[in-house]
Amino acid sequence: MENNNIITIQNLVKRFPVGKGEFTALNGINLVIGKGEFAGLIGPSGSGKTTLLNIVGSLDMPTEGTVTVLGKSIGTLNTREAARLRKENLGFIFQSYNLLAVHTVFENVEFPLLLLNFSKSERQKMVMDALEWVGLTDKVKSKPPQLSGGQCQRVAIARAMVKKPSLVLADEPTANLDAANSHHILQTMEKLNQELKTTFIFATHDEKVISYLHRKIYLLDGHIDKDERMHHDKKTKP
Prior knowledge:
This protein has helices spanning about 50-55, 80-90, 105-115, 120-135, 150-160, 180-195, 205-210; strands at about 5-20, 20-35, 40, 65-70, 70-75, 90-95, 165-170, 200-205, 215-220, 225-230. It has about 240 residues and is of the alpha/beta class. It has a single domain, classed as 3-Layer(aba) Sandwich (Rossmann fold), CATH 3.40.50.300. Helix 6 (about 180-195) links the parallel strand 7 (about 165-170) and strand 8 (about 200-205).
């Protein structure tokens, strides 16, 4: 059913000016992502995965073709409309965490809620729920410089998930983490995907992330080279 599709991409082309010419980062992408998927854009550096993630997140615009996210056509949105789509429906997880160092864990997670119409008591409950999801309720008053890399990334996940977004976009979320922390983070995201039915899309070339994906979309030189759906029986992951 069409209304069960979070993302529909048709004939997407993205070009960037380079010197006096152009570089085609994405060339003829066609893709549909359904509600509740746990999917990854996989490929080497320069394959177009981050560019595609940025367009889906309305951080960039298509050159040609159409990208529809939650019923909104990205190419037709003005700056204010794109900001509203991100504010109300999307969560972002970056490899560099992007936490505010001078603010507490609580304040970092609360930040997206300050842009929405929640009361102080609603925000309090939502932040504590999000920190409970990632196992950091004991760090509410800590600041990012006092935390490990794994803890910072868990704060970033809590911040992305606190408003229970329809879609979370994660760009190399385990790039700065060791294996143990990576698996903890990925298990947390997989659990949130299953319990909240949030759609997750990763951009990655990390084998640890790839092993968790339920769908693998391989990009090569700006086009989709392969699209595989995985059958995850409750297998034991490292």
